[in-house]
Amino acid sequence: MIQYNNVTKVYGDDITAVDQVSLNVNEGEIVVLLGPSGCGKTTLLRMVNGLETITDGDILFNGESIQSLNEIELRRKIGYVIQSNGLFPNMTIEQNVTIVPHLLKWDQNKKNERYEELMSLVGLDAEDYRKRYPHELSGGQQQRIGVIRALAADPPAMLMDEPFGALDPIIRERIQDEFLSIQRELNKTILFVSHDINEAIKMGDKIALMKNGQLMQFDTPSNILQNPANDFVSQFVGQDRTIKSLTIHFVYDLVKTIELKDSLSSSATVKKASLDTSLRDILGFVLESEEQAVAIVNEEQEIIGYLDFELINRYMVSLSSEDDPVRVP
Amino acid sequence: MGQTIITWSVRIVVYVALVWFFIWTITNGYFDYLVNNFEEFSVLLRQHFQLVLISAGLAILTAIPLAILVTRPMFKRFEGIVSTIVNFGYTIPNMAILALMMGVMGIGFKTAVFALFLYSILPIFRNTLAGIQSVNSSLIDAAQGMGFKPYQILFRIELPNAAYSIIAGVRTAVVINIGAAALASLIGGGGLGNWIFTGIRVFDNGILLSGAVPLTILAVITDLILRLIERKIVPRGTRPESS
Ligand SMILES: Nc1ncnc2c1ncn2[C@@H]1O[C@H](COP(=O)(O)OP(=O)(O)OP(=O)(O)O)[C@@H](O)[C@H]1O
Ligand SMILES: [Mg+2]
Is A255 within 8 Å of chain B by CB? Predict the structure, then answer.
């Protein structure tokens, strides 16, 4: 749906912020632009809705070059969320949320309905907040409003520049979860800037890892963690990349390739875990159990087999390809 | 809290002093002159109003658009030079402006209006400029990203968020203008200044105060009215006490 073709951005005469980037964001997918500060993530994002011009190459939106589209109309079809939430202090929460529908001249009833619908989406009371102003809200609440404001006119795509970057870790986790569950229903096409590898792993269907304006690797979080394309990627994801990747693999992934054990040597009872438990949690259970194993149960709570350290180890090894080019530094 | 107490104590002291001053002037019969010459008073008052309204009105209509213009991307490069000129104009004492204008335009009402107009531009221009420039750039960015057109950014984001500062500039300009308009009498522009300067010349407290006291009241009331207007049109979320 959003397609970068050899996109380059040069500021002034010699600052190459984005260098020959090509990547594809498919419909309904979250692609996280990840990389250290100054690597060109924001620039790459802002070229999609024309906030930055393209120096060379092209970006297609729904197959059409964005340079051939009407800028204002394009922007109203793409939700935009920024880190400092950008709520308008002179408008009430309701006016903020419904500003794009307002610009699109929706009638009052429709705007009102939409406002209430959006507020319930993020669990805020529509009446309570209707006449309040942004400064009367907490940072987390403001950011939620920023997100639903971008969703208001139901745009097919969203651009989000470190939308949760200014929040403290606990609120951030909660809003991330909340946003993911909203996204599961809405299926927006999302470009999401982050400099936090953990956030990228959690939010991204794919991650585009950048360095100095160049795309280092564009792949699923699991592949980025298991098969880093070069030293930079492996360094960026960190020594604990295997531990990190445990968080995005679940028991139901593992049972596709590896058979659970039928029984344990001792008859002691062990902890039970469901199929949608992450391998990271399973590893935790294994480490704290004397039997060094966990019983896996299906939806009817029947034990379908046992998982232990050896099986997790075998699964994780099978994920990284044989000819892994990475040397651990 | 402590600040409120201080503000209120100051206010009460000022009010008491004012009341005492009025009792003093009335018991001395200083307003007899005003009462006896009420017809002339209303003429002078009307002239004063006209001087202020016309000059301040023109200043508002000039300074605000000018500040808007030099904050548009297209004209940004003129901002420095325009600001310099306006600031320089303000460093000339208002007496001197009056004298200069008299040299160019002769004496009379028009000259006075023009001088007052020039003098009122700066506070309005400077505050409008500062107000617009202090609008957080992330707001503009968000607005652009959501598909606001340039005029929508101006009218829905920049001006409402700068409103407090703009109106503060207008208030300053108008209140100064009311006082400065008294000088108009020196070049035959009329207004309450006529009595004030006559009073000074002939050492007559009655004539002097019959001009000066209504002038003061006029300034105070205007300030109050402008503050009320400010309450009405500055959006609640953008007032200084709200952040
Ligand atoms: N308007 C501009 N003019 C000149 N150079 C710019 C401009 N905007 C960005 N740059 C430069 O382009 C490069 C990429 O900037 P960009 O904002 O895209 O980085 P980023 O990856 O978003 O960084 P961060 O994580 O700090 O937000 C940086 O070197 C920056 O200094
Ligand atoms: Mg950035």
Answer: no
